[in-house]
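To make this tangible, we now present a fold written out as tokens:
***
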Amino acid sequence: MTSDSSALRSLAVSAEDLLAAMEADACGGPETVLRVTPPFSGRMRARLHVVQATDDDETIHVPPRTLFDSDAPAYPTPDETADILRSREDMEYSVDRHREYHEQRVDAWRAALVDHVVESVTLPGVDGEIAVSLLGR
């Protein structure tokens, strides 16, 4: 184990952490990343982290979007799901129905998103491609 990030060859991340980071990013919350901290070794675990001004320089912050391919589905915003629901002629819009429908769409988005995780990624300060392993899928 070393403080040299070039030793990193494989990155493991839980599906739950990755989806939470992506959802926080999509909803415009505080900057949420997957963090890898020294000491570094060939295989490291990236964990959910909200970026702080006091974070040290040796820490690697991985934006969640970098771990998905370009075909990854977009987050279903509340406005989009409301518009879809209002356009349906077979049911009347209500706040409760919208909440339930939006929750269903977000659940479907989360389920579909894990199919778009990339096999490898390039990170700043690390030589070459880093393999990506999704845990708990």
In short: The first strand starts at residue 10 and ends at 14. The longest helix spans residues 95-113.
